[in-house]
Amino acid sequence: MKKHHISNWNAEDVSAWESGGKDVARRNLVWSVVAEHVGFSVWSIWSVMVLFMPMATYNIDAAGKFFLVAMPTLIGAFLRIPYTFATAKFGGRNWTIFSALVLLIPVLLTMYFMLNPASYTTYMIVAAFAGLGGGNFASSMTNINAFYPQREKGWALGLNAGGGNIGVPVIQLIGLLVIATIGNTAPEIVCAVYLVLIGVAAVGAALFMDNLDNQKTNARSMIDVLKFSDSWWIAFLYIGTFGSFIGYSFAFGQILQINFLAGLTDGGPVTPALQAQASLHAAQIAFIGPLLGSLSRPVGGKFADKIGGGKITLYTFVAMIFSAGILVATSMTDDGTAGAATGSMMVSYVVGFILLFVLSGLGNGSVYKMIPAIFVVKSTELVGMTPDEQAAWSRRMSGALIGIAGAIGALGGVGINLVLRASYSGAAKSATMAFWVFLGFYVLCAVVTWAVYLRKPRSAVAPNSTASDPNAASVSV
């Protein structure tokens, strides 16, 4: 066997798993998390950079900034499709090294153009390169899905995704430290930190990760998986969970900055000092939501392992309806003017968003756990295949849907930023309209979850359940 290559990996072989397989899987999981973590940070780098972009220097208003942070979300969403194939084609270790090193491009471009103000079009192009970090999620999740047995996928995939998601609050926290110690005039320090972390991720992957030679995912799998209605339902529900997480992660800091600045100026002139103060206040809070949302993701996967994904997903969306209702009520109370959102109203805004972050994280874990469970059951319906062939088919289908659901879900983040941009561009210059849209969408997601997965039994069951179990059907979400 070649070094860093594993020819015949079978995670479902209990004796092999206990005699060393789980240690191999854990080692690959650790460095997959590190690389994906850095990828998420770079993907969300512009959610931090906009706090370093005063209007007087960069000439980009609030609406323009929402569009700017939507660009890497969009590119990252589309890149998740080819990234899904990459680990099977090039090897999990090899692709992790490459996908880490390629992040040097957006970080270096960001550093240069933050130090040398340019046109808005230039920033849109530079932000698009940050989308490279968004693709890492699909390749990382597909790779880890192949390493772990069905009975532990919920926790492993949740931990992998959650550890990656934490890259969002971490870069925001680094931005906070820079703003708090130096001010909003040194964005290059944030970029410099990530040049180092990219190197750590690439070297760690090279030294400690492995390629699974029997991992198979191809373009045909992407086509085949779309024939199953569950694929479309899961992708739709993932818009509501992951789309919310990544969309709010990119927008939360800017929403806070807008409201803090409005409160500080109270209708008066906007000065660089007040903008710096608003940026600091926003940065002090913005990282909390993505952090809690990231930490709750593996918890959602664990709950799905024990209770059933459909139930967890439904409970999540119902709670998100009420959380969005807090934002609607607060926004309407301030008479539609961002400037009135001070004191207790700012507390309500923060509470509403924090709840949405935590809940979206739980939903992310529960939805992604269902993907391998669905195809394990469907594989048993295939005739003329050996158990090993059925397992290989299940892995291919799961990996393909992980890429598709991840890509479509990320587009939800684009939608959130575009809706917020439209809302702030309206006559009221507030987010009230956007909050109503979000609330309505969560109602739709809850209805779909109940109607498709909980109203009557479905074919996909929990890995530890039988088809006769009335609660087993919920796992297919």
Describe the protein's architecture and organization.
By secondary structure, this protein is mostly helical. The chain is built from 19 helices and 2 strands. A two-stranded parallel sheet has the order 1-2. The model is unreliable at 335-341 and 459-477 (pLDDT under 50).
Low-pLDDT residue intervals, each spanning 5 or more residues? 335-341, 459-477
End-to-end gap: 38 Å
Overall geometry: globular
Number of strands: 2
Helix count, DSSP H or I runs of 4 or more residues: 19
The average pLDDT is 85
**Helix fraction by DSSP (H/I, runs of at least 4):** over 70%
Tell me the major beta sheet.
Answer: 2 strands, parallel
Please trace the helix and strand order, writing H or E for each element: EHHHHHHHHHHHEHHHHHHHH
Strand order in space, largest sheet: 1-2
Rg, nearest Å = 22 Å
List the helices and strands and how they pair.
Layout: E1 5-6, H1 14-43, H2 45-49, H3 55-58, H4 62-90, H5 92-101, H6 104-115, H7 120-129, H8 132-147, H9 153-165, H10 167-181, H11 187-208, E2 211-212, H12 219-225, H13 229-265, H14 272-286, H15 288-306, H16 309-333, H17 344-379, H18 387-425, H19 432-454
Parallel strand pairs: 1-2
